[in-house]
Amino acid sequence: MIVVSSSFNIISDEIRNAYNPFESCASAQMLIKNERSDEMILSVSRRTDIPNYYSEWFYNRIKEGFLYVRNPMNAHQISEIKITPDVVDCIVFWTKNPLPMIKRLDEIKDYNYYFQFTLTGYGNDVEINLPNKKTKIIELTMIGVILVGILIFIIIDYQNLLDKFKLVFIEKNGTSRILKGLLNTFMISISGLILGLIIGTLINILNFSKSNHVIMIILRKLCSYYLSIFRGTPLMVQLLIIYFIIFASVRGQELTIAIIAYGLNSGAYVCEILRGGINAVPKGQLEAGLSLGFSYNQTMKKIIIPQAIRNAFPSIGNEFISLIKETSIVGFIGAVELTKVFKEIATATFQYTMAYLIMGIIYFVIVLIISKLFQLFERKVLRYD
User: Fold this and answer.
1) N vs C: which end of the chain shows fewer Cβ within 10 Å?
2) Domain 165-380 fold
3) pTM for the full model?
């Protein structure tokens, strides 16, 4: 429940006696809006704990810019209450778990708001839908200790670390080589994912096709062998076989061969991701399309596939992140990527600790940014309204 408050002394005695303005929503909302629409405080939400349980609903109301309120004294009367930034002075969130809202705070950046966080001594047997307090406190304590330790180390050994940083990045032409390796890493990952999406889509078209032609049966069997081989062997083994055996006579095209190997490997996993997305769509959707007169192919194209993409999108994002991390083995066939560049820099400067720490930080930042971008795209574009 949401309490909308502007000035409690304007609420009539009848409503005041019937409803507590701190824990009721409907009566105060309608009267207050009518009396003083220029000042409003949203109290979200006391007993209901909207931030923990109904944050999706709340963000939808913010997106719409209003909510409907039924008059408790007249069930047939419904008022529209504006909750736009020009009307709402402040939002107060009352919650025992603000985590469901934290990732989407950018959606209320135009509002003034703060959180009232309640911490109790109850265990998980009572508060079953809340994070474990001891675990969270231990995690935060460990993170704090690690960050403080790193900060102290940097302060004490500042000049030495700066010299090593300059040696890795500035001398030996480090910056340009790292940028080249980073570009190749993205090229292999993106191209491999695109190739994997094409392969996975084609295989699913074959598998979900209703045709029983002998050629289709043979193709399905070959696809099953392909999936078994590429999902049952390590990526490094596949890369070495493709480079040293299949393309043994081709040299100087290490990057292209790496893209082919990663695309074939990704195609096997993307195929299963898409298959899972299609199977996750309720069967009633297919039956409904057919009952409306659509053909099987039309139903798949217009009804099933769009929903399957929504279902599979998070897993496709994870596959892309995995490809980025797995590019670290491309150096085994001589292709230049991020890991190989830092290995060469470390060997030339003898600064192994600094070089590999920077490499790890770069990988972490890349994965973090990509994860956020996929989450943002999923929330803004692929969400159900």
Assistant:
1) C
2) MetI-like fold (1.10.3720)
3) 0.62
